[in-house]
Design brief:
With 428 residues, this protein is of the alpha/beta class. It contains 13 helices and 14 strands. An eight-stranded mixed β-barrel has the order 4-5-6-10-11-12-13-14, surrounded by five helices. Strands 1-2-3 form a three-stranded antiparallel beta sheet. Strands 7-8-9 form a three-stranded antiparallel beta sheet. Pfam families: Enolase_C, Enolase_N.
């Protein structure tokens, strides 16, 4: 029996920040139904694919009824009768239908929701878990990065670096590493309380104490790792996402950072001091503005041999921009966000391109999330190697980690049956 896409239908739902987003249901001719929910970012790069919003007064202009109408109308009409098992054809059809460089006509939220829903329906129709359907046989569990202290646009405090993350570098399994993170997270809460600060949570489940500086945040984080019984840098390492575009002033070309007004050279000196003072930092994301490629390149030239340097806003999961980043030696790692580019197929192309050029990849959630666990399966399927999905708090974050625990268990059972354990393989 030939299986085809019977219809796709969308509706407006709400994300973890209470903002509207798109949910898409895919219906196949064999009776299979699956849905996908689209996340939304707060710190967004100007080169990202367009998240279509209605504007006007309703819901502060953030409604997505037009994106929903685009799924129910032209996208549905274009995809009816196509094979759900040919993801590239599904995605190419929507890209051609949109006809713009940044998916401004139909909306990346409409297109991505449809792309994800059909992939999930195809997997369900084949009676395969999504990670196996997308990824094949040999799979690996990711290294996870957890945003446990929030600053920047993710919190209302005095810290300008947006995310302070912890990652389990010494672990026997994904579960063992995640338990270490949970222990450190609870120790961090105690350390913050002991220091006399509030322990309210930011958008991504991390604490948002009203600290005076990023150095103070790192000292508290180091203390929490030790309090939890681990060695900083050996058991639990630290990473940060500066999201520097959020404190870069385009008018004077300076970085307005925690009471300072610095040029690129002065900002670089600050990072040099920070990384020397905190050797447990292993990964740095977006240390400079998305258009300040010159200083970003200088950062990578200086620290790229000892640290992972992740580009997000500069490249926006866009293969064209990643090619430029490779040519300019901008970074050594690419952040992967499905909704920055808008389809599964284009995201896979970006991952392949990065891996071919010896760059690491880190799949990422958004600050406005839903309970959808697609990125957990996607990270395992692509052997992306790394995932960041917030703190081990708030259900929309923890759902991703619980899904990874399920996948680890399933892979273990499968490999016990096949009498082998999965090995790292080249993505190609």
């Amino acid at each position: 029996m030939t299986v085809y896409v019977e219809k796709v239908r969308a509706l407006e739902i709400f994300d973890s920040r209470g903002n509207p987003t798109v949910e898409v249901h895919a219906y196949l001719s064999d009776g299979t139904v699956a849905k996908a929910e689209v996340p939304s970012g707060a710190s967004t790069g100007e080169k990202e694919a367009v998240e279509l919003r209605d504007g006007g007064k309703r819901l502060q202009g953030k409604g997505v009824t037009q994106a929903v109408a685009n799924v129910n109308g032209p996208i549905n009409d274009a995809l009816k009768g196509l094979s759900p098992y040919n993801q590239a054809e599904i995605d190419r059809t929507m890209i051609k239908l949109d006809g713009t460089q940044n998916k401004a006509k139909l909306g990346a939220n409409a297109i991505l929701g449809t792309s994800m829903a059909i992939a999930r329906a195809a997997a369900r129709s084949k009676d395969e878990p999504l990670y196996r359907y997308l990824g094949g046989c040999e799979l690996e569990m990711p290294q996870t990065f957890h945003n446990v202290i929030n600053g920047g646009k993710h919190a209302d405090n005095g810290i300008d670096i947006q995310e302070f993350m912890i990652t389990p570098v010494a672990k026997n399994s994904f579960r063992d590493g995640f338990e270490k993170i949970v222990n450190t997270y609870h120790a961090l809460k105690a350390v913050i309380e002991e220091a006399g600060f509030e322990t309210g949570l930011g958008d991504e489940g991390g604490f948002a104490p009203n600290l005076n500086s990023s150095e103070e945040a790192l000292k508290i984080l180091r203390k929490a790792i030790i309090k939890a019984g681990y060695k900083p840098g050996e058991d639990i390492a630290i990473a940060f996402d500066a999201a520097a575009s959020s404190f870069y002033n385009t008018e004077d070309g300076k970085y307005h950072f925690e009471g300072h007004v610095w040029n690129g050279e002065e900002m670089l000196k600050y990072y040099d001091k920070l990384l020397k003072e905190f050797p447990e930092i292993i990964s740095c994301e977006d240390p400079f503005d998305e258009n300040d490629w010159e200083n970003f390149e200088k950062f990578t030239a200086k620290f790229g041999s000892t640290h992972q340097v992740v580009a997000d806003d500069n490249v926006c999961t866009n293969p064209k921009l990643v090619r430029k980043a490779i040519k300019d030696k901008l970074c050594n790692s690419i952040l992967i966000k499905l909704n920055q580019i808008g389809t599964i197929t284009e995201t896979l192309e970006t991952i392949r391109l990065a891996r071919k050029n010896n760059m690491t990849t880190m799949v990422s959630h958004r600050s406005g999330e839903t309970g959808d666990t697609f990125i957990a399966d996607f990270t395992v399927a692509t052997n992306a190697g790394q995932l960041k999905s917030g703190a081990p708090a708030r259900s929309e974050r923890v759902e991703k980690y619980n899904r990874l625990l399920e996948i680890e268990n399933q892979i273990g059972v499968e490999n016990e049956r096949l009498n082998h354990f999965p090995n790292n393989v080249d993505f190609d």
